Amino acid sequence: MTEENNNSVMCCFCGKGIEYSFAVQLSMKPSPDSEEYQGFYCHPICLDNLLHKDVPRHPDLLTNESK
To answer: Which has the closest alpha carbon to 40: 32, 29, 48, 51?
Structure first.
């Protein structure tokens, strides 16, 4: 989260700010054997635009409008 506004995070795809409550939270494991994760945030539309069209979407992703 940013220091100036604790309700804002940065989209890892477009680099623009997004209100925390509207962000999709992604978790990444560097390798299958790793016990550590790194978290990212993104706009639902950015994730939707980058996923292959045949990858199923969670219903909440399709209705969660970013601001």
So the answer is: 29
